[in-house]
Amino acid sequence: MLMPTSTRTHTTLTGFLNSYGFISHSKIGMLLGAGLKNKYLVEIVGTFILVYAICSAATVYSGNVLLGIVGLGQLQMIGVGLVHAFVLTAIVYAIGYRSGAQVNPAVTIALLVTGKMHGKEAALTIACQILGAVIAAAVVYSMFGSEMAASVTLPANGNVIRAFILETVMTFTLVYVVLVTTTSKNYKIAPLAGVAIGFTLGFNVILGGSISGGSLNPARSFGPALIVGNFDFQWIYWIAPILGGLIAAGVYTGLHKDLDLPSPEAEQIK
Hints:
Layout: H1 7-19, H2 25-60, H3 74-99, H4 105-113, H5 119-144, H6 160-181, H7 190-212, H8 218-228, H9 236-256, H10 264-268
Helix pairs in contact: 1-2, 2-3, 2-5, 2-8, 3-7, 4-5, 4-6, 4-9, 5-8, 6-7, 6-9, 8-9
């Protein structure tokens, strides 16, 4: 989720790496070129790690598997929320320079709408995210069997409206933070972008996990649902996150689009 691999992103990343002395400017072009070649495979790996960690944690802490993740107790939900936060933070720093560490179709669609990705690139990225999520769920199922049903996202008490609204709002906050913290003009905040993104996800899961399951990610919900064969209310976890991401894209475009302009610092290192 850190940065889309666009020209503007390359400027941002080049400025960050060069200004902090992590790598010489002459080697950055080679690094970015290799990243572009592998970005789709990296999205599979990144989404795999995210969904594997989430499903494993939810299964280990499981309460009533028939209720899905909303069946977890309060302390267990806090633990699962922290898993979300730390794992996504790690993923952002690990693969952000390769693929942008989007690992979420809602984020990818928001990047597409804001003009940071092309349609074909977004479609391939989403396909890779779904594939990574399915593989992760299959691996967890191979270890825990039907107990993995505890990681399926379902609305508490079957309250569809409440879950839909909450998933929309939570995904809005996540995608908004992603977009605002990864703009070119603000490239100096890049070292903290991963923390901001990761803990925005974790906070939302702690807050809303017991109500909607705290998905905020269609791929994360689809993987476990496919493996255990439970597609109940699955539409919520596609439409609501995408809607939240689109709202975030609209707000970003209205309030922060000017930040896409190259900064003076970035211009100096071109």
